[in-house]
């Protein structure tokens, strides 16, 4: 019985260190980085767009819970950038006087989404 000889594989994209899409790893990281920068710019743009909305809600002393909460929902998406967090906090401070329980919900939602501190640090501090 003759031994089977394995046919050598041709050098494919994966063997050359390239990704499945044919891009080298440096190109892949550059693409990911450019996407992350674009997302960050959009988050900042969103925060800057919502800032006048928040200032208006506060200035007219709006008690329209649906509009306030809709705005807070939108702000949660951009609260990872300093401007977004500033506007989010501003509306939370205002909304706290209207509905403290709902405001606490939004603060917890922010912490769940964006707070980078591990839970263990909070336990160690107690």
Describe the protein.
It is a single chain. This protein is mostly helical. 67% of the residues lie in helices and 0% in strands. It has 5 helices and no strands. The protein has helices spanning 25-59, 65-78, 82-96, 100-114, 119-124. Helix 1 runs parallel beside helix 3 (82-96), helix 2 (65-78) runs antiparallel to helix 3 (82-96) and helix 3 (82-96) packs antiparallel against helix 4 (100-114). The longest helix is centred in the middle third of the chain and has 35 residues, at 25-59. It is elongated, with a radius of gyration of 24 Å. The N and C termini lie far apart (73 Å). The relative contact order is 0.09. Residues 12-22 have low confidence and may be disordered.
The sequence of SSEs as H and E is HHHHH
Q: Overall pLDDT, averaged? A: 83
Helix content: 55-70%
**Basic shape:** elongated
The helix/strand class is: mainly alpha
Please report the number of helical segments: 5
Contiguous uncertain segments of 5+ residues: 12-22
Task: Give the amount of beta strand, in percent.
Answer: under 5%
Oligomer type: single chain
Could you describe the largest sheet, including whether it forms a barrel?
none
Output the radius of gyration.
24 Å
Distance between the termini: 73 Å
DSSP E strands, number: 0
Topology:
Blueprint: H1 25-59, H2 65-78, H3 82-96, H4 100-114, H5 119-124
Helix pairs in contact: 1-2, 1-3, 2-3, 3-4
């Amino acid at each position: 019985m003759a031994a089977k000889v394995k046919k050598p594989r041709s050098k494919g994209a994966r063997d050359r260190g390239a990704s499945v899409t044919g891009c080298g790893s440096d190109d892949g990281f550059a693409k990911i980085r450019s996407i992350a920068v674009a997302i960050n710019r959009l988050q900042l743009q969103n925060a800057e767009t919502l800032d006048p909305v928040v200032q208006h809600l506060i200035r007219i002393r709006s008690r329209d819970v649906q509009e306030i909460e809709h705005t807070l929902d939108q702000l949660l998406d951009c609260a990872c950038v300093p401007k977004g967090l500033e506007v989010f906090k501003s509306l939370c401070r205002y909304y706290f006087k209207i509905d403290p329980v709902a405001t606490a919900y939004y603060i917890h939602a922010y912490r769940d989404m964006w707070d980078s501190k591990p839970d263990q640090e909070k336990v160690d501090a107690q």
